[in-house]
Amino acid sequence: MIRKFNIAVVGATGAVGNEVLRVLEERDFPVGELRLLASERSEGNFLEFRGEEILVEKLTRDSFQGVDIVLFSAGGATSLEFCPAAVDAGAVCIDNSSAWRMNPEVPLVVPEVNPRDIAMFRNKGIIANPNGSTIQMVMVLKPLHDFSPIRRVVVSTYQAVSGSGRKAIDELRIQSGELLNGRPVEAGVYPHQIAFNCLPQVDSFLENGYTREEMELVHETRKIIGDQGLGVTATAVRVPVFYGHSESVNIETTDKISVARARELLAAAPGIHVDDDVNNAIYPIPVEAAGQDEIFVGRIREDETVANGLNLWVVADNLRKGAALNAVQIAEVLVKEYL
Known about the structure:
The protein is α/β, with parallel strands linked by helices. It folds into two domains: about 5-130 and about 325-335, Rossmann fold (3-Layer(aba) Sandwich); about 135-320, Dihydrodipicolinate Reductase, domain 2, CATH 3.30.360.10. Helices cover about 30% and strands about 25% of the residues. It has eight helices and 13 strands. Strands 3-4-2-1-5-6-7 form a seven-stranded mixed beta sheet, with helices on both faces. It has a six-stranded mixed beta sheet with strand order 9-8-10-13-12-11. The chain is globular, with a radius of gyration of 20 Å.
């Protein structure tokens, strides 16, 4: 008989929380009791799971009794406040916020890249889910890094508005409609109009001139790959796309990796799909990645300015592998190997 686990989803009514429920159902995760938790604003709503309407409850410190795993998707402040309460109640937390990612006692995990780090959950009862942009990049870096250590990474991200939640999705939709009808628009979620525009700002700026998002890409990549000396520099851009983050990734390796060998390494890696036939206009695009679990990579070509350089174009659904799917995959390893 298959053992079932009691699961709580914090932030269940948000964009990522909804996707977590969908992924749990699609992957037939062994859910016993499912507890849906959210803020007071969403209390009393119902969400469907496996054909059943489940009541959304208000999140409190007493919400976790009898729960085995808590999937958090409600922001850093919520995670900092409620993860310890969940752990005290006997649950393991998988947190999708940035709150715990750089804590040295908390594993930061992409199951295809560093699954053994999951064992570190015993330190604090928490496993951190990386930034979505980091996830799709390290998925591509890992097989190349294993073949020839990467010395430097230059990445520019082109991030969908769904990375900012439901309000941002609505803002792009409304602004697009208003502008197409010749009416002025107001910016709410972002500092400027996002429709038909690009904003070279994802999250707030730091003293070094980079944004928090950009520095998360730097620090998280080093932690997951396990190389604090890895050179990483990033520019993060918000673009008027609903779903699917895109990245232009330039790497410099210790030894040369030919384009053909890079394609072979990536095609053989779990969770990666190579779309790279430029003569037939085949390359990854976000509208085709939306709703898909794989990381798509194409435009693989040599960087002719350095001896051992490659350029790659990487696209993924930021709500799937970039958030919900990765968290559920962590839970799958957790129940199979540790609980």
